[in-house]
């Protein structure tokens, strides 16, 4: 892990006490005030709900400039990676720090293929979930269950950790496809050695003796790109959860399972499902976009435009640009017309022209067009967040591995400002 550079100090004045805090700078010019000694020296803690200004670590993995709309994995622009790489190469990049050579990629793909089956006893689990189970519930439970089937966790040996990483990348995709097949009552389709990572997934999802050509090569290419744009996003909610759980010493499977649960929420990765539900709702009610925008602006209503706004991006999310183009490509490849895309584009146009959205820097985020693209590929709405999880997996793994190696690493343990009752005595039950 490269070091942050110390660039000076800043004095904090608290009453008549002055505390000198070191100032650091990262490789892209981001500056930070180190308040590590604050409580020890002054008795104060910082108060920062939602960690709006709190840097919890230094990281080599991903750089975002939310004002300029820049997203880079290990220095490479996400557009460049999406245009020129397959998902497996980007997974390798995030986890190992550099893009693979042709030979390394071939070996890695081969390894992923070898580990893509899941233990037959695990397959049994699927039959015990009720039919309406949300696939994110199944995915998170299955991810942590892998630790009992594959107990070499890599806590002490690098080779074991590499094996755990490979198993997770490979098997989570199989689990996702099996859970879909179970939900529609079809038999599971096993992975095939002659198919690459993304095509293997589409084949496991859609291959059926009674459907001819259930996917095309535009979809395979689109899936590669979609998984790439999901692959990492620095210290977002789920990545921070993965790091926090891992910081207690919990294993990688358990930490990833927790990350999957965090991603599920509608304010995070769950938004892609809610975008489609919102667009379908608009369509069902006659397509009145102005009414929806007014509702999103109304502070008395809890409704928000799903797929809009971001904690970090205050300009167009670079991932949303890629997803919008992909959505159009996939629709063109199926020779269909999706009226939801028309609604989405009109909604985007009107929102971006509205002072409420302009003043707050609210633009479409990654989830606005990815759901529509998945829908065109035949992936059901409740599987959208699962797709996000498969894409985000290498990022979570990279964050976990970096956290493990960080010499400054400690158990994640924020402070609080207590606002409950002062000390009091229990009144015997017959006198309460
Ligand atoms: N629709 C309407 N108003 C919004 C929206 C929205 N989608 N997003 C933010 N705002 C408004 C807020 O009401 C607030 O207004 P105010 O200043 O008048 O109070 C202002 O914009 C700032 O919003 P915050 O909630 O403070 O911003 P925060 O950084 O905490 O939240 C979040 C970011 C959760 C993504 C938010 O924009 C949101 O809820 N978006 C909709 C859900 C969504 O698309 N989530 C996916 C995010 S991408 C991802 O996680 C993969």
List keywords for this structure.
432 residues; mainly alpha; Rubrerythrin, domain 2; Citrate Synthase, domain 1; Cytochrome p450-Terp, domain 2; 3 domains; three-stranded antiparallel beta sheet; 52% helix; 7% strand; binds acetyl coenzyme *A
Describe the 3D structure.
The structure is a single chain. The protein has 432 residues and is mostly helical. It folds into three domains: 5-55, Rubrerythrin, domain 2; 75-268 and 392-405, Citrate Synthase, domain 1 (Orthogonal Bundle); 271-376, Cytochrome p450-Terp, domain 2. 52% of the residues lie in helices and 7% in strands. Helix 3 runs parallel beside helix 9 (217-230). It is globular. The strands form two sheets. A three-stranded antiparallel beta sheet has the order 1-2-3. The chain binds acetyl coenzyme *A. Acetyl coenzyme *A is lined by residues 50, 267-269, 271, 296, 304-311, 360, 362, 365-367.
């Amino acid at each position: 892990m490269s070091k942050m550079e110390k660039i000076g100090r800043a004095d904090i004045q608290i009453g008549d006490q002055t505390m000198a805090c070191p100032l650091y700078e990262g490789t892209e010019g981001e500056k930070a005030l180190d308040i590590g000694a604050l409580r020890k020296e002054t008795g104060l803690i910082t108060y920062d709900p939602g960690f709006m200004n709190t840097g919890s670590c230094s990281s080599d993995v991903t750089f975002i400039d939310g004002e300029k709309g820049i997203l880079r994995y290990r220095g490479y622009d996400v557009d460049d990676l999406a245009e020129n790489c397959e998902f497996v190469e980007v997974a390798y990049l995030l986890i190992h720090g550099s893009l693979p050579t042709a030979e390394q990629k071939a070996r890695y793909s081969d390894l992923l293929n070898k580990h893509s089956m899941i233990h037959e006893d695990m397959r049994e689990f699927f039959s015990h979930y009720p039919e309406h189970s949300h696939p994110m519930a199944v995915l998170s439970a299955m991810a942590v269950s892998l630790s009992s089937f594959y107990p070499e966790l890599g806590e002490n040996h690098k080779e074991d950790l590499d094996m755990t990483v490979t198993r997770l990348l490979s098997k989570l995709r199989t689990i996702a496809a099996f859970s879909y097949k179970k939900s529609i009552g079809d038999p599971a389709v096993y992975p095939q050695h002659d198919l690459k990572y993304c095509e293997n997934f589409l084949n496991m999802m859609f291959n059926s003796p009674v459907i001819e050509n259930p996917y095309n090569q535009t979809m395979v290419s689109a899936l590669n790109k979609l998984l790439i744009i999901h692959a990492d996003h620095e210290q977002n909610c789920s990545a921070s959860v993965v790091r926090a759980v891992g910081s207690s010493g919990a294993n990688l499977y358990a930490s990833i399972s927790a990350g999957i649960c965090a991603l599920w929420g509608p304010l995070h990765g769950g938004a892609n499902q809610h975008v489609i539900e919102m667009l379908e709702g608009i369509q069902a009610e006659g397509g009145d976009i102005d009414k929806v925008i007014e509702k999103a602006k109304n502070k008395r209503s809890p409704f928000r435009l799903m797929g809009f706004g971001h904690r970090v991006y205050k300009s167009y999310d670079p991932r949303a640009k890629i997803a919008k183009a992909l959505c159009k490509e996939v629709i063109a490849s199926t020779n269909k017309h999706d009226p939801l895309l028309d609604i989405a584009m009109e909604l985007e146009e009107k929102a971006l022209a509205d002072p409420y959205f302009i003043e707050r820097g609210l633009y479409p985020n990654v989830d606005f067009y990815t759901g529509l693209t998945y829908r065109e590929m035949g992936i059901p709405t409740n599987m959208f967040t699962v797709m996000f999880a498969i894409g985000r997996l290498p990022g979570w793994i990279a964050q976990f591995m970096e956290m493990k190696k960080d010499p400054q690493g400690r158990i994640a343990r924020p402070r609080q400002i207590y606002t409950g009752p002062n000390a009091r005595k229990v009144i015997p039950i017959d006198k309460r």
